[in-house]
Amino acid sequence: MSQSQQFDLDINLILSQKVNLSAVERRCESIIKRRSVKKKSQVEWLLNTIEFMDLTTLAGDDTPGRVSRLCHKALNPVRKDILNDLGISDHISAAAVCVYPNLVKEAKLSIGKYKIPIASVATGFPTGQIPESIKISEIKAAIRDGAREIDVVINRDKVLTGKWKALYEDIKQYKTVCGQNHLKVIIGAGDLGTLRNVVKASWVSMMAGADFIKTSTGKEPTNATLPVSLVMIRAIRDFYDLTGKKIGFKAAGGISKSKQAINYLILMREEFDNDWLNKNLFRIGASSLLADVERQLEHHSTGSYSADNRHPIV
Description:
48% of the residues lie in helices and 11% in strands. It has 314 residues and is of the alpha/beta class. Helix 7 runs parallel beside helix 9 (164-178) and helix 10 (195-208) runs parallel beside helix 11. It starts with 10 loop residues before the first helix and ends in a 12-residue tail after the last helix.
């Protein structure tokens, strides 16, 4: 799967990173105000959104039954009657399912023969405040049970205190343990204070071998935002220009409405060429988002909006 390389840490490059906040905000405002997707095109964009989703349950009351239902929904994300009404015959599925390490076995059993990868959070999600030895054990356990994508959290204190070498060594070790499995590094943007810290943490993660960089755990006070995403996406683009290596981007946390999700697709399309707009390089971490997408698709089918409870996720 993953062919990620690890690069030497360039401290001078990390320290030189700057962000023009006003320019970032203007760029993001232009997406919200200028771009609009309507009618048939909106159906296509909504279906694309589903195929980029890591359908996720990371709750304290997760059970094997909930994970089983989540996997079924990932395999069949839109009711067949809606797809038939819209004239959609192609099979549609989510990009992956994401669960806690102790529920990977249940997810693997539920996914069965279908080729949807199982992702698992690790390294003391969501805070990362556990010993490194336990973090490594979590990664190994998740992979042993069938996870093929690992979403790790970084020690945000190492960003806030400028311990870039220590952060680099942490992530490098996570990638070594992951081997050919995808490593998604969650930088926890809402805990980092500034966009400058966001871009620095992004660069360190990519140099250390991340296959994806991800905005948030979904548990921070502020999660995915367009400004944070723009800064990370441009770091990915600059990293590619420097190294020739393509790194994926995952927006996660607080994306619950279709319009929000489409804004992220527009951002990816405008900042990159179309090569990046595929599930190998772009994901949206989502739970409740799928219900809204299915509701919007039903509106296109019937002309009216249904109640939210017609589109349960689990």
